[in-house]
Design goal:
Elements (H helix, E strand, L loop, with lengths): L14 E2 L6 H21 L10 E6 L7 H6 L1 H8 L11 H11 L2 E6 L13 H17 L6 H7 L4 H12 L7 E6 L23 H12 L5 E6 L17 E5 L7 H10 L1 E2 L7 H5 L6 H12 L3 H18 L6 H8 L2 H8 L11 H16 L3 E2 L3 E3 L2 E2 H7 L3 E6 L2 E5 L2 H7 L7 H12 L2 H6 L4 H15 L5 H9 L1 H4 L13 E5 L20 H8 L5 E4 L9 E6 L6 E9 L9 H18 L8 E9 L4 H7 L4 E4 L3 E2 L4 E2 L4 E5 L2 H8 L1 H11 L7 H4 L1 H13 L2
Parallel strand pairs: 2-5, 2-6, 3-4, 4-5, 13-14, 16-17, 17-21
Antiparallel strand pairs: 1-7, 8-12, 9-10, 11-12, 15-16, 18-21, 19-20
Helix pairs in contact: 1-3, 5-7, 9-11, 11-13, 14-17, 15-18, 15-20, 15-29, 17-18, 27-29
InterPro entries: P-loop_NTPase
Protein name: Archaeal ATPase
């Protein structure tokens, strides 16, 4: 039935999605299940070695990461990858025999949302879990479910009796593997008043300790394995579950899908009732390829599987309503960027974040900075004394992108950003960060290194340019440069959509020949005229040999005079200092080509400035500056390097004292500690106090 255009963002399930990717996750889970198989005698106390801690694969991810889909398809995935990615696992006869038996496992899926009190052991969590497993086994084979009292009389409170009954109901022999999936573990968050949990000496209860204790006892039974998944507010990795000596949870990464994964998803999924119509055939056209559609979906959803599936459903509903496929990537992205699309797409997944109290606002601000500046974090990095960062990301309703098994980045899908922008009580800083994330190309997130130094400088510049109150740094630039003083400042009220846009260093793949405007080339006239807008501050995706780290342009209020400003962030975090050769190198790659290609066309109207923000100047540079910032105007020479400032250009070198004024001395010291041994420091190298101080210093400039 045709829907009106007013219902174009309907979410009806119109296609049958296929399951793609997850090779690394399958490999991890298979290895951890084998560890249990190999060490079960230790677990049962039948071995002289008792060092083994029960290994349980666990996925505590947010909605939409594909937890349930992964688990129910795990056995199929093993069969799919057994000849490819996990073939290397079966390196000996023991592992090969295990893998062969695992392929023929019987899988029992248990949704803990169905957990309820039982009769007569109504307050026993263990008995309630036993009964739920028996109930699901009966439902699986289509036989009447045993009454609670009948089950209680049939199954004594012993793991061996339960496993024997499950095997009998499912008609599986004792030598066949039984794989139990516990889903929606977060249901235990609501169970505090329903069951009698073990209490600590101070009266506290930890339902998850009780739950994993039950799992541990069941794992002593031969040929039984468990996977546990589900979002939980109560199960934090900082609580005693993960540090108690008997259970070790191994996190299943469930990475977002890549562009190639999404292409496979689009090509193999088909309409619900018309199997010969692939999803890509409906959405794409001769001028809009499946690769471009995958890129657009990745840009919008961050590759989170649940968001990808929902977005595809909405696009299919829209296309089928209007009776026409998309003609270009821009048209498709335009639809996905609409407020209505983003609100409806994110609705089942997004958490309603309260930013009313200062602690939550601070945490949210830190996570936004980590996402924008690409600061990775480790599994056990602490945000504060009560919470790991891993937990904070969960509780804020965000996602994690795994760099490796124990290292992650904060991922905020753009459909989430659009919803977060409507939160009440957001500071100007949070608005700028959210707007920046919304404009940042997704390839920047997946490829760029940590850019915290450039990011801090850029936000300082945004606040400095837009502030309506007295600003020492802006006054300093006005004193150094007569041209800068002529510019229209402050710029208009800062809109987060106008700032910090990262510009790609290479052209995006496109069959429609639409090229991303980029600073990755030396075509400066085209770059500045077509890609650089007034009142925007840009950061290129990656540092490169063709552009400064930050670039923006200003306009005079009385005439059409334009000032193009580049900023070179020269961080020195060891004994090496910034010499004249470093400064001239930056000037030659920016001032010289801009002067030749842009300024020469309108010498009376166009000017260019390069600001060098250096953390450690060499002694000869500092000596020539006289320990104060200096502006070298066109025609002036730096004799030691035989370099003359080009026409209509200025080179501003900030002394270390003024860099400290711009950035804050304590923040600089923290950056130096973090970058002293690596060019990609982790959150733990910075520490939460440094990012809190950075946030506080930003707020003080508003």
């Amino acid at each position: 039935m045709m829907r009106s255009l007013g219902e174009r963002w309907a979410t009806d399930n119109t296609f049958k999605p296929v399951f793609v990717d997850r090779e690394e996750d399958v490999s991890l889970v298979t290895r951890k299940l084998y560890e249990l198989h190999k060490n079960r005698k230790q677990l049962k106390g039948q071995s002289s070695s008792l060092n083994y801690r029960l290994t349980v694969p666990f996925a505590p991810h947010m909605f939409g990461s594909g937890k349930t889909t992964f688990c129910v398809n795990y056995l199929e995935l093993i069969r799919r990858f057994s000849e490819t990615s996990i073939a290397s696992f079966a390196s000996n006869s023991s592992k090969k025999e295990f893998l062969d038996k695992l392929k023929t496992s019987n899988l029992l899926y248990v949704d803990l949302r169905d957990l309820e009190q039982t009769d007569p052991e109504e307050r026993s969590l263990e008995w309630a879990i036993y009964y739920l497993m028996v109930k699901n086994a009966c439902s699986r084979i289509g036989v009447p479910v045993m009454r609670k009292r009948q089950a209680f009389e049939t199954v004594e409170m012993e793991p061996s009796n339960l496993v024997a009954l499950l095997r009998d109901k499912l008609n599986i022999p004792t030598n066949q593997y039984l794989l139990v999936v516990f889903d929606e573990i977060g249901a235990l968050d609501e169970s505090y008043g329903e069951f009698d949990f073990e209490r600590t000496q101070d009266g506290e209860v930890f339902p998850y300790n009780d739950f994993f204790g039950i799992v541990r006892r069941l794992c002593k039974q031969d040929n039984v394995f468990f996977i546990v998944v589900g979002k939980s507010e109560g199960l934090r990795i900082k609580n005693s579950v993960t540090v108690e000596p008997r259970v070790l949870l191994h996190f299943i990464s469930l990475s977002p899908l890549s562009s190639s994964n999404i292409v496979e998803f689009l090509e193999k999924s088909h309409l619900e009732e018309q199997f010969h119509y692939r999803v890509c055939d409906i959405l794409c056209s001769s001028s809009f390829s499946v690769d471009e559609l995958a890129e657009a979906l990745l840009e919008c959803t961050g590759g989170v599987p649940g968001l990808v599936t929902r977005a595809v459903n909405m696009l299919l509903n829209y296309v089928q309503t209007r009776g026409q496929s998309f003609r270009s990537k821009d048209e498709c992205l335009s639809c996905m960027n609409e407020d209505g699309f983003q609100r409806i797409c994110a609705e089942p997944f997004i958490q309603h974040i309260s930013t009313s109290d200062e602690d939550k606002k601070t945490e949210f601000g830190i996570l936004l900075m980590m996402a924008l500046f690409h600061i990775p974090f480790k599994l056990y990095d602490e945000l504060n004394s009560e919470c790991y960062l891993f937990d904070a990301v969960n509780e804020m309703g965000l996602y994690r992108y795994p760099i490796d098994q124990d290292t992650f980045q904060v991922l905020i899908p753009k459909v989430f950003v659009g919803n977060f922008e409507h939160l009440s009580s957001l500071s100007l800083l949070e608005q700028i960060l959210l707007g920046s994330l919304k404009l940042e190309p997704v390839d920047c997130f997946f490829s760029s290194k940590c850019r915290v130094f450039e990011g801090i400088v850029a936000i300082r510049l945004i606040l400095m340019l837009s502030s309506k109150v007295r600003n020492e740094f802006r006054e300093l630039l006005c004193q150094l440069s007569a041209v800068f003083k002529e510019m229209k400042l402050p710029i208009r009220e800062p809109s987060p959509l106008d700032y910090m846009r990262s510009v790609g260093v290479s052209e995006s793949r496109s069959e429609s020949n639409k090229k991303r405007k980029t600073y990755g080339s030396n075509e400066w006239n085209k770059n500045i005229q077509e890609a650089l807008y007034f009142d925007r501050v840009y950061i290129p995706v990656d540092t490169n040999s063709r552009s400064p780290d930050i670039i923006f342009k200003l306009q005079s209020p009385v005439d059409s005079k334009v000032l193009i400003v580049g900023v070179a962030c020269k961080g020195r975090w060891n004994s090496e200092r910034i010499g004249w050769s470093d400064i001239i190198e930056e000037a030659e790659k920016f001032l010289v080509p801009v002067s030749n290609q842009v300024l020469s066309n309108a010498p009376d109207k166009n000017h260019c400035m390069l600001i060098v923000v250096g953390t450690k100047l060499s002694f000869n540079v500092a000596s020539e500056l006289g320990d104060q910032s200096r502006c070298y105007s066109s025609g002036m020479s730096i004799e030691s390097e035989s370099f003359t400032i080009p026409s209509n250009c200025e080179l501003v070198i900030l002394c270390e004292r003024d860099v400290e004024m711009l950035i804050d001395k304590e923040i600089l010291n923290g950056l130096e500690r973090a970058f002293s041994s690596t060019d990609r420091p982790l959150f733990g190298d910075f520490g939460p106090d440094l990012l809190r101080r950075a946030r506080h210093s930003f707020l003080s400039w508003q």
